[in-house]
Amino acid sequence: MMANRALKVLHVEDDFADAMLVQHAVCEAGDLDIAFEVARTLRDAKRLLGRNDYDLVLLDLRLPDSIHPRDTLETTQSHAGDTPILILSGSMSVDAARLPDDIARLDKNESFRKSCGDVPVHLAHRIREAVGEADIQTI
């Protein structure tokens, strides 16, 4: 990633409120320069991945046009190339067993509970891990 531009993140999320919650939390952390683009369907995500380069894909597993978590992940991987993927899903408790062990994941329900402490910092930290901290422009 070039040091003079924001981290480009494709957030694949069909729930507009959840997408806004994540963006707000990351912006509240205040130390990452991130430009989010949201795709609400797997079809839109495939189209955007074909047209643009991203530094990270935040992926919900259950979308209106792809309800099978494994299919959603595999399709995204096939279109994302070398772009890292961080699964951010509210269905993680039931879907975790269906996913490869080496894929980065974050349970949306657990992450946004008040008992998890500082949600924005936690989410920003997980994004750093997924991309590789040396590649991230901080502000």
TrEMBL record:
Q: Which domain of life is it from?
A: Bacteria
Supply the PROSITE patterns for this chain: RESPONSE_REGULATORY
- Enumerate the Gene Ontology biological process terms: phosphorelay signal transduction system
Which key words are in the record? Phosphoprotein
SUPFAM superfamilies, alphabetized = CheY-like
Q: Which residues carry this modification: 4-aspartylphosphate?
A: 60
Q: Where is the Response regulatory domain?
A: 8-123
Q: What is this protein called?
A: Response regulatory domain-containing protein
